[in-house]
Amino acid sequence: MPMFSPLPKLAFCALLVCLCCLSWYSTGSGSDLVLLEQRPHEAPGRYRSLYRTGAYSRAQSKTSKLLSEYNTIVVEAVTLDKNPALNKFPAGHDTDFQKKIVADLQKKNVFPEVIDGTKQAGGQEAPADGSTGGKRLILSTTIIDFNPGNKALRHTIGWGLGATKVKARFTFRDAATGHELWIHTQQGKFAGFLTVYGSGKNYPVTEASGDIVDALIKQINKHR
Questions:
Q1: Is 9 a domain residue?
Q2: Which end of the chain lies in a sparser environment, N or C, as judged by fewer CB atoms within 10 Å?
Q3: Which residues of 114-126 are buried (b: 16+ CB within 10 A; e: fewer)?
Q4: CA end-to-end span of the chain, whole Å?
Q5: How many CB atoms lie within 10 A of CB 175?
Q6: How many domains does the chain fold into?
Q7: 119 is a domain residue
């Protein structure tokens, strides 16, 4: 009887493992603290003396809590970046994304006051002084990338292959000065195979967007 070598099967399994690892680790998320002047630029003397004096930890603490003085946040309408990949982004899901951000910020009490910026009369920003006291923050959101994924891969192979991915950029700025405080990029994905029909919405995109909001709130709380 002819003998079949197991090498092709082993190679195929190794390829699947590599693809799954790549899908798992490439989150495409990150933050950029704009207040760079609050970070120490050089060590006083030897590098180790910076840590001994506590200057580094104090500077890090100051920048890590840059949203602590803000009691009100205004969530503006979500916009789409000029990216050809977004031509396939389902219509109306940018609006749903903005509503999701507002609803979850309110539900989880991230700020004492959360304002839907799309409902303000005349489309103008609210006054810089919120009714709850403290400073007012403006959140601008831009969807910068989209991959609809592959339903067949999600159903047959799984392991994160064929996942629907949405990536967004969040810009936080002071309402009074317009100064940008923090820019954060976050990617969300849906790797499941369950699809809800009859809702009129793209379920994988809805779930991926919700994944983004969950991760965003965790990052905001770190700066509160």
A1: no
A2: N
A3: bbbbeeeeeeeeb
A4: 70
A5: 20
A6: 1
A7: yes
